[in-house]
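Annex B. Sample input.
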Amino acid sequence: MSSRIFLAVDPLPLTDSVKPMADIVDIAVNAPGFKTLVAAVQAANLVETLKSPGPFTVFAPNDDAFAKLPPGTIQTLVQNPPQLARILAFHVVPGKWTQTDLQQVDTLTSVEGSPIRIDTSDGFEVKNATVIAADIEADNGIIHVLDSVILMG
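Annex B, continued. Sample output.
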């Protein structure tokens, strides 16, 4: 006499159990510390771009990073959307680059068109900024949080 064991498993509907991962914009909107970045992305009309499929790697300055800028800089940039968009585009790279991937390169070309120096030899630095949180996964890419705003040149 053989004994058989049957397990009955009720499949869960996908809509109830699996939610899509948030995109880059949704993560920034819902995470603490990115109010200035979110406002800047909105002022530069880049929300739809950063909600598109990508993938993108975003080097995202937090609110403390923006606070390091000289007084009046943010207000001046918000009043000049093309310049603001150019600076924000410098913080974005096509493709999904994890910290491990970035250890294989010295520079990447930003969406803005300028090179961004990457240094993983002693910590994790992007141009003149230190990455304080790496590899934040988004549906359309990845975010690395910076302690400073990076500028072209």
